[in-house]
């Protein structure tokens, strides 16, 4: 069982046949993205979808003067997200994502009907799950994401999800995780790690946030997988 709490939104109609696990960004909580479940639940295609929004543990963020906040892993330099890596924290969080996926499988969800997604830090974590999950899932969503440098030594761990569809949305006005880092992530996962189905979408004028167009594109992507 996962060791972290989560905001959970059950299906409109039982039994649940699919699941979306979405990981928030730095300083946020699962509740911050629960609106996403409400949007999808308006569509009958998601009436039997279960939504899980895990809460990251509290971490003293070095880049923020050791200020404690929810984080999937530590950050050391805002000007260079790859300057130093919190390998221990990153791998612990990856284990938690794996536990949430296993939980849904144990509850009867077919792995092909599970989507793992995230925003910013959560997106970096979601992307890395394709390299470590012991089962092939339905898809990955990464919004304003980047590639954690730890991915380089994970790339040969598991090849089950090399054909798993990935949706990566990124704003061209993002000053927190610049578009260049998003494109670097696409290159790393597509070229170095061998992912074969990586969609990359740019959104003009979008800063480090989401927008209606990106959310609608994300919903369409998920719908193709689990609806």
Molecular structure report:
By secondary structure, the protein is an alpha/beta fold. The protein has a single domain (6-226), classed as Alpha/Beta hydrolase fold, catalytic domain (Rossmann fold, 3-Layer(aba) Sandwich). It is built from 6 helices and 9 strands; from the N terminus they run ββαβββαβαβαβαβα. It has helices at residues 35-41, 87-106, 121-129, 151-154, 179-192, 212-226; strands spanning 6-9, 18-23, 49-54, 58-61, 67-70, 114-119, 139-143, 166-171, 198-203. The strands form 2 sheets. Strands 1-3-2-6-7-8-9 form a 7-stranded mixed sheet, sandwiched between helices. A two-stranded antiparallel sheet has the order 4-5. Strand 8 (166-171), helix 5 (179-192) and strand 9 (198-203) form a beta-alpha-beta unit. Helix 2 crosses helix 3 (121-129). The radius of gyration is 16 Å and the shape is globular. The relative contact order is 0.15. The mean pLDDT is 93.
Write the layout of secondary structure elements.
Blueprint: E1 6-9, E2 18-23, H1 35-41, E3 49-54, E4 58-61, E5 67-70, H2 87-106, E6 114-119, H3 121-129, E7 139-143, H4 151-154, E8 166-171, H5 179-192, E9 198-203, H6 212-226
Parallel strand pairs: 2-3, 2-6, 6-7, 7-8, 8-9
Antiparallel strand pairs: 1-3, 4-5
Helix pairs in contact: 2-3
